[in-house]
Amino acid sequence: MSELLQAWMSLISRSKVIDLTHKLEENIPLWPTHARFGKILQESYELGDVALHYQISMSEHSGTHMDAPKHFIQDGPAHYGIDRVPLERIMGRAAAIDLSPFPTERLVIVEHIQQWEEEHGRLQKGDIVLIRYGWDRLWKSRAEKDDSYVREWPGLSFEAAKYFVDKGISAVGSDTLAVDASHSDGNPAHYTLLGNEVLIIENLNNIGLLPAFSLFFALPLPIKDGSGSPVRAFAVVPNL
């Protein structure tokens, strides 16, 4: 076993994994125009089959998911699908910027980010930024008739998105339905980030359990020419 592999194994043994993914199940919150998540029984022991399995149907943007650049970018170098996203862009050092509780429908401005950097350290090229608004606490089944999660959420201003682009950030995630605020006109954060090949991860969970910096992974399905994919997002942190 190489020294590098031994070092990795030692690190893993002294770490814990924080799951940042919402469970995929029927009646989860969703964008109004997106397909609902559904699960249909195809085989079961009770029906005399030798195995159990379900057919599932869902949007590429169901639950905790990643936007590929082509989700908003119609042409040019950034017009590519989720199957062409380099995996090294969505694994690495993550900065968890905790802005919770953030006011409804407000926009994150550059000064919010810079204030966090003054307290915790500068963002570096290749970092993955995870923004916590505290919105995951509102994630509820639609059967509960509480649609707070899909109304009046906060998000990034154009200037904040441009700041991340200029910093060379690889991906930006949030615990809201979208990185743009619910009231934003023209989706400036989506166009700014995706147009510069900064990936977007939405509907994250448990960002509040992370330290300022951690090791982050978000793995999409390689859907050919897909506009996005559900992901299993998680972070590895020291087990103190």
UniProtKB/TrEMBL annotation:
GO terms for molecular function: hydrolase activity. SUPFAM superfamilies: Putative cyclase (SSF102198). Keywords: Hydrolase. This is Cyclase family protein. Pfam families: Cyclase. It comes from the Bacteria. Its EC number is 3.5.-.-.
